[in-house]
Amino acid sequence: MKRLCVVLALLSSGAVASDKRSGVEYVSPETRALQADDFANPGMLWVGGGEALWNEAVGQTKKSCASCHQDAKQTMKGVAARYPVFDEVRKRPIDLQGRINQCRVRRQKAAAFAFESEALLSLSAYIAHQSRGMPVTPPRDERLWSYIENGKELYFRRIGQIDINCASCHDARAGQRLSGNLIPEAHPTGYPIYRLEWQSAGSLQRRMRGCMTGVRAEPYAYGSPEMINLELYLMNRAAGLPIETPAVRP
Prior knowledge:
globular, 11 helices, mainly alpha, three-stranded mixed β-sheet
């Protein structure tokens, strides 16, 4: 119980106030309208592609995701809202993209998707889309506590030649402008997102690597423990906000 109180305090200290705001509140009305319209939202192209992949039989087993999980609209509802979770196989946290690749390799006997590949982003977007509107609900699993602590430490660690941390912008300067855009509170509720800057969909890890490069730091590798721990902390920090996938951002 004492450890739980420490972790809950850890999550609240240094994080945004209880009136936390989604990144969609920091974009223009035109971008908000684009996200809200499924016929105009470009991220829906990845959702549609993911639906096709969900039903595609692949690998040595010739099984599809639907072979085991049936209708994603039912079985995947709420899944993205609780990831990352503790993985019994790896004995550490795993995010949604890691789980997709784990299933491909272990269950379908197929090659893992490459990070930031259209296939991995599409299947991730399709699964996460089934949780749209549901609140982020991180698991209260004591096995995750040390990883959440590490994620917070990374969030507040000063890095790069500019010598700042994530909180320098997303806590201290949320709502202010950087390069003409309002700085959001860094709640990862819409990933994979479509960024107008990228003219493509991308993962949370791509966005975090972009921030690290922006402060002239060496970014953590895709799929690294540091990336997963940061994602875990950020999702705990965003608890209660609704999933928006696919979100649209500048």
